User: Fold this.
Amino acid sequence: MKLKTQDLAKIGLLSALCMVATFIKIPFGQAMIHLGSAAIFTTGILFGGKYAGFAGALGSTLFDILMGMSAYTLWSFVIKGISGFLVGTISNDKNLIIWSNKGHTYIRTMIKNIVAILIASLWTLIGYIIAWTVVLENFEVALANIPASLLSSGLGLIVAIPLSALLKKTLNKYI
Assistant:
């Protein structure tokens, strides 16, 4: 895959957005509820899997480094990178048809975006259960962090679906 200067600039800006959004957080047990997932999901829907994958991986990793959570940097890079890639790839796949009725394009697109986010959220949940178990060396604590992961993903879905719909028209004009 060849990246142009414009691609690198977009990835840099989107990574910074993902990192800053993750700083908007509420501690929840050993985990946290944050808006980083919303930024990754929105990036995936608007810009596709390549950009969301890089932005999710780099933004989440930068957050972990800045917050002194170095034990999670590699985990976040892989988990959030794949999560962004999944949302972006599934939501922008022209061949994936939710149902075959003609019309209702907006509803079909919204359902496809929701399905993409749910798949990425499941991946993130499984990935972080493994990460928490390895890093914390405690499976029970990992299981106790499941609600925080689900709430972050749920918040991400609630924010990303309407935000991406609002931004899509504007971005189509200028990009």
